[in-house]
Structure formats: C-alpha cells, structure tokens
C-alpha cells in the first residue's frame, strides 16, 4: 500500500516543480495602465497585445537552490497573522470539543425541542 506523502512533501515538491518551470517557460511581461472604475478609485489593468519577452535573470546556479530552501520560511513569515489565527481558532475549537460543550448544547436543544410537532 502506498503511503500518502505529508503536506510539507507536497508543498516542497510543488516549489521545486515551479522553480524548474521558470527555466522552461520564457520570461515576459505586459504593459499595464490605471483605469478609473465606478466608485472613483483606480485599478491597474493589463493592456491587451503588449506582451513582450524580457531577459532572464542571470543569478547563477545556486540562486534557485537558495530560493527553494528559503521559500517556506519566507512564506510563513509573510503569513504569520493567518497562521496564528488558525492556531488560536483550532485550539479554541479543540478545547470546546474536549469539554463536550457543543454535544451538551445540542443534547439540551434536542431534549427541549424534540417533542414539538
């Protein structure tokens, strides 16, 4: 039986795959302009038909390796607020489930409302 890889293995494999794709897919860019939208604010949009190839970044062989090894830590650093929020909500949910408060509340509702027709 094949064991399912961990989430870190899947994410790390995706990072390596996408890094390899940057050497296969040609680099390019579109020109952009700001357009006024209905509420008075401006939104940056891509100008159709302005795609142009750009030179590759000549940083050498070690740069992608360093980028791969530091990608997860940089991503976690930039998403620290979301990670902390998920940990707090998950911990609170775990405490509520461990105490049986939700089960007791549902049981109480069933007991009070269960005989209504």
Looking at this protein, list some descriptive labels.
117 residues, mainly alpha, two-stranded antiparallel sheet, 12% strand
Explain what this protein looks like in three dimensions:
- The chain is mainly alpha-helical.
- The protein has a domain at 57-116.
- It contains four helices and four strands, in the order H-E-E-E-E-H-H-H.
- The strands form two sheets. Strands 1-4 form a two-stranded antiparallel ribbon.
- A hairpin with a 5-residue loop joins strand 2 (32-36) and strand 3.
- It starts with 6 loop residues before the first helix and ends with a helix.
- The model has no long low-confidence stretch (mean pLDDT 88).
- Its main location: membrane.
- InterPro entries: C4_dicarb_anaerob_car-like (IPR018385).
- Keywords: Cell membrane, Membrane, Transmembrane, Transmembrane helix.
Main sheet makeup: 2 strands, antiparallel
Label the structural class.
Answer: mainly alpha
> What characteristic shape results from the CA principal axes?
extended
Q: What letter string, H or E per element, gives the SSE order?
A: HEEEEHHH
State the end-to-end CA separation. Answer: 51 Å
Radius of gyration: 25 Å
Tally of helical runs: 4
On the 0 to 100 scale, the average pLDDT is 88
Order of strands side by side in the largest beta sheet?
A: 1-4
Strand content: 5-15%
Protein name: C4-dicarboxylate anaerobic carrier
Subcellular location: Cell membrane
InterPro entries: C4_dicarb_anaerob_car-like
Membrane topology: Multi-pass membrane protein
């Amino acid at each position: 039986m094949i064991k399912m890889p961990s989430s870190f293995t899947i994410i790390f494999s995706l990072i390596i795959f996408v890094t390899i794709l940057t050497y296969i897919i040609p680099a390019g860019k579109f020109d952009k302009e700001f357009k006024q939208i209905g509420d008075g604010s401006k939104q940056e949009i891509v100008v159709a038909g302005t795609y142009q190839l750009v030179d590759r970044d000549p940083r050498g062989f070690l740069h992608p390796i360093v980028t791969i090894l530091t990608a997860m830590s940089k991503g976690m650093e930039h998403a620290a607020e979301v990670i902390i929020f998920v940990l707090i909500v998950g911990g609170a949910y775990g405490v509520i489930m461990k105490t049986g408060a939700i089960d007791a509340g549902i049981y109480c509702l069933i007991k009070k409302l269960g005989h209504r027709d």
